[in-house]
Amino acid sequence: MVACSAALAAGWLLIGCSLPGGREMPARSDLGDLLQSPGRRDLALALGEDAIRYGRLSDAEIFLHWSLGDVPPRLSTSGRGFRGRLSAGQSVRARTLLAALAMERGDYLRARTQAERANRLAEAMQSNQQEFQDGALLVLGRASLALADYPAAVGALSRVGRPLDEPDLDALIVALRGLGDYHAALGVIVERNTRFGYAPGHGSEESLLHEWVGRPDRAVAAVLVEAEYLRYHHGRTRDATQRALAGLEGALLHDDAPSIAARRLVEAYRAFLEQSWERASWLLVDLIDEVDHPFVTYLLLASRIRNPPVMEELFHRYAELEPLFGGMQYYSASLWRGLREAHRRGDLPGYSVLTMRELLERTIRAAPASAEAYEARRELAVLTGLHPRDARFLLLPDEIDQIIDAAIRHRDPHRLEPLLAGLSMADSPYLWAALLGLQRVAMVPLVREYLAVAAVSAPPIAAERIRGLVGR
Asked: How many CB atoms lie within 10 A of CB 90?
């Protein structure tokens, strides 16, 4: 079964990836099935939905036209009409799906026409029209945006009755920006970040809007979101970041209050980079009320939890930022380091693998090949009783699954080498996860042969564990 395509997601809103009532349709429905049917339009709609479900978009378009009574002449049959009518809701759904199909093909004018007709049908319904109307409005908004009709796009997306998903919020931001309504676009950005958190590129997009509304201080704060992301996820060096800050300062030439605050924020971030936690904290405390941006709060709290003495309340306040920054490695990395340092000073008892495992694993997952991920692996190794040098072998369960899936998919057992490299580790949850993963595929002939050969040259402990897997 294929997944619903992204372009059809809005049109599929009211349908999901199954047919009404949860019933399954065959994997293949021939066009002839409909011609041999009693001519029910609701069956044509169901077959259209089924065709979309299995990625047969050309078939789907024909079925949906049939459901609306529009039979192509080349496929009509003499004496064979279509009985019954679709309900109003079914008609809205059929036209919404036709609009989504047109979007998939890049025919945005046709998509908008069909979505407008679906929307008018929904508006004419006596009750519950919003449920049926939302899908039509979403496609109408996307089609209008593709046609650079920003007023229509904003009008359609703003009328959707349920909270917009992240891609639809992105579309609304673009449409508002196209209208020149930058303040409204920033308001939608706040909603998106609050509900879904920051993602790569969001800071740059936000920074530009703040600049356009004359707030260089907030623009700098948003730029720093991206700077911190690049440091952790892409390994940008401190020197490279400092050079970028110097260029940023050079662009802040005015002496109005927001520009002065922006320069002070750059100075505070420079202290943060240098791990001058006390200086960064003092600079940021003076800015926290002046520059209303959550990244300033992040910088202040991330500095405070590294600057003794640290009260437990600071960690609770830091945790409140997780919905915004939880997907960024720097958020988890700053937290686990702050917790470890507080524990070592005696400010915060109870630091153990039980309390830290999830946080350290989240740090790794955010950017598995990064230097910070390696440090998190070292910490996990120490907390689970392994030698720090074993950190390079320590793999998370989902990483193990990915390695095994790739080996089976490509029929290349040599891809399992990272798992075998760690089989000399002492007992730990990560060793057991590797052994369980290998056990799942050890009886696959290609893998079994590879493991038998690998056991010959493996270190004694690893060889014994491999032989246990293949039964030799």
From this structure: 18
